[in-house]
Write a structure and sequence with these properties.
With 371 residues, the protein is of the alpha/beta class. Helix content is 42%, strand content 20%. Helix 2 runs parallel beside helix 9 and helix 5 packs antiparallel against helix 11.
Length: 371
């Protein structure tokens, strides 16, 4: 009996040693948490993620991964535009920096602020809000959680408003500069001299797109007419493909042969109208060629993914700074697409003229109106 007890005890000791070795292996492998999510989903899923340089957890212990939380704009993940670019930035940060991240798709305004508070309360190092509608909520939540870093894409600046809290970075883009370039491209290829613009929500931010686009058209085609239309005056105007298609078809019926949309998910309807009629369409935010390979002339790109990645990188390095930062052509924050897929449709002469305009804007020689 004594020998059996000794044998059992030896087995228990060996098993305990094996568990300790396995635990050390898991820590060394860097098992992390990343959360996907659908509307209302908050539970994280566990995946393998490398540990990167991040906030220190004490001498002799490997630093933990930077944890990033993000709340999406209207339209959510899968808009093939603004939100998807923000998500792409997180994926790049995960691959390049080894971060852990979680995202939430809010259902309405109340959900938006509560989602920001939830991520901050759970101790995320950086919390992102995607879209201008987060501005007021972000200012309030950042003030309540001064030790958390916050960042907002398309931070809205109100005249007379105080500076954002020191832990909040407001990222803005000079969209009108990128829109100017695709407007010039449209003005150079139109045959009817009638060009359309379809916006989502009628707000100053989207009017910047329209103003820059119309200025670009006028720069190369003074005789051209730009017809503008908006899907609505509420945030849901960015998620209404049916309205987008109706607006585009109405413009096409009036002779428009090129349409630029700045309308988020509503743009899916604009692409549908282009596919049905064979008219040219210009994408926004991301390269949207795949939405209508038959008909996409080019896309105005807004490098939200790079802005997200670089903000995360600043937190990882420990040199995050609040304030307002604006990105345009000079900073490579906006641009237009010309590659092997649309080269034949755009043409070399158009490319050369648009590129010449890009250089003049980037150098400050040519100033693009924003309203």
């Amino acid at each position: 009996m004594g020998k059996r007890r000794l044998a059992v005890l030896a087995l228990l000791v060996l098993a305990n040693a094996a568990l300790i070795m396995w635990g050390q292996f898991c820590v060394g492998a860097g098992v992390g948490v990343r959360s996907g999510g659908t509307r209302g989903t908050t539970a994280p899923r566990v995946v393998d993620a490398p540990v990167s340089a991040g906030p220190s957890v004490g001498a002799g212990v490997r630093p933990r991964a930077v944890r990033v939380g993000l709340v999406f704009d209207v339209g959510g993940l899968g808009d093939k535009s603004f939100n998807d670019l923000a998500h792409a930035g997180l994926l790049r940060a995960e691959a390049e920096l080894g971060i852990e991240f979680r995202y939430i798709e809010p259902g309405d305004g109340a959900d938006r602020e509560s989602a920001l508070r939830l991520l901050a309360a759970e101790g995320y190092d950086l919390v992102f809000g995607v879209g201008f509608i987060f501005t007021d909520d972000m200012r309030a939540v950042a003030a309540r959680f001064p030790k958390t870093h916050f960042a907002t894409i398309d931070y809205a600046v109100t005249p007379g408003q105080s500076a954002p809290p020191a832990n909040l970075l407001g990222l803005r883009f000079r969209e009108h500069e990128g829109a100017f370039l695709v407007g010039a491209a449209a003005g150079l290829v139109t045959k009817t001299r009638k060009i359309g613009f379809v916006g989502g929500m009628q707000i100053p931010l989207i009017r910047k797109f329209e103003a820059g686009f119309a200025a670009g058209v006028a720069q190369v085609c003074p005789a051209c007419e730009v017809l503008g239309a908006y899907a609505g005056t509420e945030p849901k105007a960015f998620a209404d493909p049916t309205m987008g298609k109706e607006l585009a078809l109405a413009q096409i019926a009036r002779g428009v042969d090129v349409i630029f949309h700045a309308s988020g998910k509503t743009g899916a309807g604009v692409f549908a109208a282009a596919r049905e009629t064979g008219r040219l369409v210009i994408g926004v935010d991301a390269d949207q060629f795949d939405e209508a390979p038959c008909c996409v002339l080019t896309s105005m790109v807004k490098r939200v993914d790079v802005a997200v990645l670089e903000t995360v990188r600043a937190v990882a390095r420990g040199d995050f700074a609040g304030g307002v930062r604006e990105l345009g052509l000079a900073e490579d924050g906006v641009g237009w697409v010309y590659d092997e897929r649309n080269r034949a449709r755009v043409g070399e002469s158009v490319r050369a003229e648009v590129e010449a305009l890009r250089q003049r804007i980037a150098s400050g020689e040519l100033v693009v109106p924003s309203e």
